[in-house]
Amino acid sequence: MRLLHTSDWHLGRAFHRVPMLDAQAAFVDHLVATVREREVEAVVVAGDVYDRAVPPLSAIELFDTALHRLAALGVPTIMISGNHDSARRLGVGAGLIEQAGIHLRTDPAACGTPVVLRDAHGDVAFYGLPYLEPALVKDEFAVDRPGHEAVLAAAMDRVRADLAARAPGTRSVVLAHAFVTGGRGSDSERDITVGGVAAVPAAVFDGVDYAALGHLHGCQTITDRVRYSGSPLPYSFSEADHRKSMWLVDLGADGSVTAERVDCPVPRPLARLRGTLDDLLADPALTVHEDAWVEATLTDPVRPADPMARLSERFPHTLSLLFDPDRTPDDPSVTYARRLAGRSDQQIAEDFVTHVRGAGPDRHEQTVLRDAFDAVRADDAVREVAR
Prior knowledge:
Protein name: Nuclease SbcCD subunit D
Subunit structure: Heterodimer of SbcC and SbcD.
Strand order of the largest sheet: 6-5-4-1-15-16
Family: Belongs to the SbcD family.
InterPro entries: Calcineurin-like_PHP, DNA_Repair-Maintenance_Comp, Metallo-depent_PP-like, Mre11_N, SbcD, SbcD_C
GO molecular function, one term: exonuclease activity
Helix content: 25-40%
Radius of gyration: 23 Å
């Protein structure tokens, strides 16, 4: 069976205030053309269809158009909700839509109930694991302490139990939206950290033939059977080196996997430039970036006058302007920035306790801080679902 694996459409999202709806519509055109031209037998979309719980009407209309076009091809589509989606809103009408071959999986309780498709070699069971916010699904999966690994492992136990009861030779595909160990993130993904740990091991997906992952925006291979498709479009300058694509996956009769990357259309290249303003304006090697979306980091010791206006004369699509002046190593601002670089909220809070009290927090106090951060994130997740 030939699958097309994609995720993280983020319909309705802008790129540094530049509307992306036309680029998203072009991606949908490309998706439909790929399904038709490459004889795809099933499309899997691993979450974050929308960029927020209550998307703009234009994004809903584009999603509706995509569903109609996929249904018209007669190719089944399986979708899950991601952490940006409202699972309840995305799942409205799922029963009716399923009659058209569009299978929306947004209910965590249904993790062990697959969509079963059939090809010349037998059945393929598709299990949809929507984004599992630990604080919201801990009771459903009866885990003692909510965490991403615990709830995802419990969901996969249901998958394996259902698969074990099926006919020998049944192949399996899991759709999941999570941060798997070994994956490379970007600035575009919303933080899903709970208990200080967001990542789950790839081994949690053992026992299935292919895991189609969403959440991370870079297309990447964790193992031959566990892959991220990445987002089809860039949503931050941290994705400047990404090759935006989808996975075309052939699932053999014996469950073997071969995968090919299918490139997505690029609306405009990204460029991250760094240097003094005068250097950026004069360097002939930067001519290649004059039509790109540009993030410029100026290193002038003193902030120059009208930097954005001057940059835009050469790079008219400059969207982000940052300042990182060259300073001596003992400059107080440099020292403070280095202390914070790469540190989690928990570590920064513990450092503050140490600074104020003269001694770091003990184990109990660390737990209190961690629980406080988890409670804030859980409240944010509840409010997002309720919107």
